[in-house]
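To start, one record:
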Amino acid sequence: MHWFYMELIRFINMGGYARYVWPAYGFALVILLFSVYMPSREHKKILRKLRKEI
């Protein structure tokens, strides 16, 4: 089991580039979540507007 933790630490460290890689992953995740959230918000807004008009 000890080798598993060593490999996990090596993966998380990303060969010394962790300070660049993990923030990039985080930024990409935020952008992806934003690109899903905003259209769904606009869709709900349009549906509410259409319901008021009918």
Notes: The chain is about 90% helix and 0% strand. Residues 20-54 form one domain.
